[in-house]
């Protein structure tokens, strides 16, 4: 696992061995901290033949091999990647939990991004959460606890995953070839190291680097099309760019390069840009970006 997750994993392993492991585990934390990977590991541990005694998969038993082939009949996976998790999916989950395990061991349900569950779906899940059946486990991930119904939260064991010691994630990133010496912005994401790894795997590191440079020199931007084509390479990049912009303006405010009114006006323009992107379907992205960039340039020219 990742060094910043080891301690939490050990705590869950201990609770398992003392028969105190909760049947419904809600793993929450920032995007890019490793929740999905952690839940995948936990489901492997729970399905492995060794789970009769310990929570640590062997990688060799029939269950482990079935999992590796992504073909385990006692694992159900619900992902909130596309829009929402609806009531039909939760009813299928309830059925799955009810029927006996094909491999004779535990049955595991993984629900990614539980905050994407509709209200009726969450209601349908309550009974299963409330009345735990033997050898049934529900593992959930969540990016934002405030979006989860209190009735769901109260029926789960909440496990927070976070990078508490940034040196750990920085060292891990160095092992992936990403250093803050080379990329000045890398420390911005030291609590979300898997984001950087994903960008590296997608060949996007130089694009993120370019966005950082643009954000710190926004008054020089003239070519909106090039900037938009960089941003359109991945859905995560708009949020990254606006985060860099806000950081840049904070620094400029701190050294007196801009005044507070300018800072306030800039952040308002950035917020409007972000909210337009979320709300307006089929938005003209180039126009919206040029409104942002030229709007910011206007504010920065005022004294
Ligand atoms: Zn195994």
Automatic annotation (TrEMBL):
Keywords: DNA-directed DNA polymerase, Nucleotidyltransferase, Transferase. GO terms for biological process: DNA-templated DNA replication. It comes from the Bacteria. The keyword RNA-binding does not apply. GO terms for molecular function: 3'-5' exonuclease activity; DNA-directed DNA polymerase activity. GO terms for cellular component: DNA polymerase III complex. The keyword rRNA processing does not apply. It catalyses: DNA(n) + a 2'-deoxyribonucleoside 5'-triphosphate = DNA(n+1) + diphosphate. Its EC number is 2.7.7.7. InterPro entries: DNA_pol_HolB, DNA_Rep/Repair_Clamp_Loader, P-loop_NTPase. PANTHER family: DNA POLYMERASE III SUBUNIT DELTA, REPLICATION FACTOR C / DNA POLYMERASE III GAMMA-TAU SUBUNIT. This is DNA-directed DNA polymerase. It comes from Pseudoalteromonas luteoviolacea CPMOR-1.
């Amino acid at each position: 696992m990742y060094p910043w997750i080891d301690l939490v994993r050990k705590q869950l392993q201990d609770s398992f061995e003392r028969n105190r492991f909760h049947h419904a585990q809600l793993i929450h934390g920032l995007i890019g901290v490793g929740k999905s990977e952690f839940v995948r590991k936990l489901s492997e541990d729970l399905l492995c033949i060794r789970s009769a005694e310990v929570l640590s998969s062997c990688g060799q038993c029939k269950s482990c091999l079935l999992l590796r082939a992504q073909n385990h009949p006692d694992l159900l996976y619900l992902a909130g990647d596309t829009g929402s998790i609806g009531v039909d999916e939760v009813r299928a989950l309830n059925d799955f939990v009810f029927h006996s395990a094909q491999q004779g061991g535990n049955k595991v349900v993984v629900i990614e991004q539980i905050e994407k569950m509709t209200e009726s779906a969450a209601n349908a899940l309550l009974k299963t959460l409330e009345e735990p059946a033997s050898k049934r486990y529900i593992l959930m991930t969540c990016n934002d606890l405030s979006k989860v119904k209190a009735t769901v939260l109260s029926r789960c064991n909440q496990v927070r995953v976070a990078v508490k010691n940034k040196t750990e994630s920085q060292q891990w990133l160095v092992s992936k070839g990403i250093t803050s010496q080379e990329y000045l912005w890398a420390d911005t994401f030291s609590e979300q190291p898997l984001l950087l790894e994903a960008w590296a795997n997608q060949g996007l590191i130089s694009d993120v680097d370019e966005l950082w440079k643009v954000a710190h020199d926004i008054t020089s931007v003239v070519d909106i099309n090039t900037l938009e084509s960089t941003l359109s390479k991945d859905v995560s990049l708009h949020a990254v760019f606006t985060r860099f912009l806000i950081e840049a303006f904070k620094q400029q405010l701190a050294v007196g390069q801009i005044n507070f009114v300018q800072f306030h006006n800039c952040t308002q323009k950035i917020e409007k840009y972000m909210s337009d992107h979320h709300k307006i379907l089929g938005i003209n992205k180039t126009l919206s970006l040029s409104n942002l960039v030229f709007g910011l340039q206007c504010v920065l020219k005022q004294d």
